Amino acid sequence: MTASPTPAPRSGSSLPGPGLLGLGLAANFFDTLGIGSFATTTSVLKLGKITEDENIPGTLNVGHLIPTMLEAGLFLSVIQVEMLTLVSMIVAGGLGAWFGAGLVVRWPRRTVQRAMALALLFTAAVITLRQTGIFPQGGNAAGLAGVSLVVAVLANALIGALMSLGIGNYAPCMAVIYSLGVSPRVAFPIMAGSAAIMMPAAAIRFWKSGRFDRRVSLGLAVGGIPGVLIAVYIVKELPVKALLWLVVGVLLYTAATLWSSSKADTSAAA
After folding, report:
1. Which of 103, 182, 197, 236 could form an SS bridge with 177, CB 3.0 to 4.6 Å?
2. Which element (helix H / strand E) includes 57?
3. Range of the domain at 80
4. 7 backbone dihedrals φ, ψ, rounded to 5°
5. Which of 100, 35, 30, 32 is nearest to 61 (CA)?
6. What is the DSSP letter of 213?
7. 3-class DSSP state for residue 38?
8. Tens digits of per-residue pLDDT, 204-256?
């Protein structure tokens, strides 16, 4: 039986530079506009070799926590959502994130790399289906009931667990609630509210394990706050269809790089 890996120390103690602050600002700016921050940040951290691969999931959950909670608060203050749908999906997502993070913090580097690669492929597939119109574009409902609500709650619990791998919840959550007839406008507070509960649940696990990069997380948090505020109060809307195709390309390349790195680690260990 393979022993559980010893938790890596929280890397770095210096303050983040302009590059990390800019990454936090850009990722959370586009997150507020619906692109999501996890998959794009994963690509930058991996391709830029900014931190160790096994620390990426924890760095995302810790670093994007405060901007995401701010984003959720702003959305919930201006968009009305049926309360049962909102609360049940948020609670389910938080429970999924708690148990999912509890597994990920025990995984060795190679397993994390391959799981992140698969998660990025999944995200790229969901974005592609949205872009091509295969996924429904949403309805007019402000909430769900009955079987539809049960499906949404179970799906959000699974999404919360996957969020611990850095998959992010926006793309899959949007796909689920659009397909069940929820209004696109109502989708944003549900997604942001779910993330605001999922991320603290996961972040606590990663913080205790030490599996995150302190300097990078601080840069994402500090830079992310103005990114959210700019998106909400200044830009508000932006045509992002072409940008999403670029995101898909970057995610596919990053997934291939992570998988290749996991194979290289296997060869080195042999």
Report:
1. 182
2. helix 56-63
3. 18-265
4. -55, 135
5. 100
6. B
7. helix
8. 989 988 889 999 999 999 999 999 999 888 877 767 677 778 778 877 888 88
